Amino acid sequence: MAANLDENPHLSAETARLLLDIPPRVARIETHIEYMRGDIAELKGDVKELRAELKSEIKDVRSDFNELRAEIRTEIKYVRTEIKDVRTEIKDVRTEIKDVRTEIKDVRAEARTDFRLLFSALIAVALGLAGLMAKGFHWVG
């Protein structure tokens, strides 16, 4: 029992003296309790260290999260601006398409007029050539 008491780093000298005066079963229980107290004290220190580490990690995660949030907000503003620009360009394209349609209608109307004029000129030339041919072959007097 005395060797067992000397090996325990958690026991104080006074506790070791008291354990020599009590029955072995109670001494074993008290020895175990002293071990448990030492282990609990060690666990408390570990828990404190883990809490400090956890708080540090939480701060880091929050910081990263806030940075990411700010970055996303900036990107969203950029995307919104781009969307507005695209909408403006789409409106411009629609206006240009309307202008092209109007021009196509004008070209069609002019084409009809040009076709009628050209066809009339073709008929006049054909009649003129026919008259020349008739006079050349002495068909007409």
Give a written overview of the molecule:
With 141 residues, the protein is an all-alpha fold. It has one domain. It contains three helices and no strands. The longest helix has 113 residues, at 24-136. It starts with a helix and ends in a 5-residue tail after the last helix. The relative contact order is 0.04. The model has no long low-confidence stretch (mean pLDDT 87).
Mean pLDDT: 87
Write down the Rg.
53 Å
- Tell me the count of domains: 1
* Percent of residues in β-strands: under 5%
How would you describe the shape? Answer: rod-shaped
- Summarize the biggest pleated sheet: none
Distance between the termini: 160 Å
Parts with pLDDT < 50 across at least 5 consecutive residues: none
Structural class comes to mainly alpha
Instruction: Spell the H/E element sequence.
Output: HHH
Number of continuous helical runs: 3
Please give the number of β-strands. 0
In helices, the fraction of residues equals over 70%
Quick summary:
The protein has 141 residues and is mainly alpha-helical.
Keywords:
mainly alpha, 3 helices, 90% helix
Write the layout of secondary structure elements.
Elements: H1 2-7, H2 13-20, H3 24-136
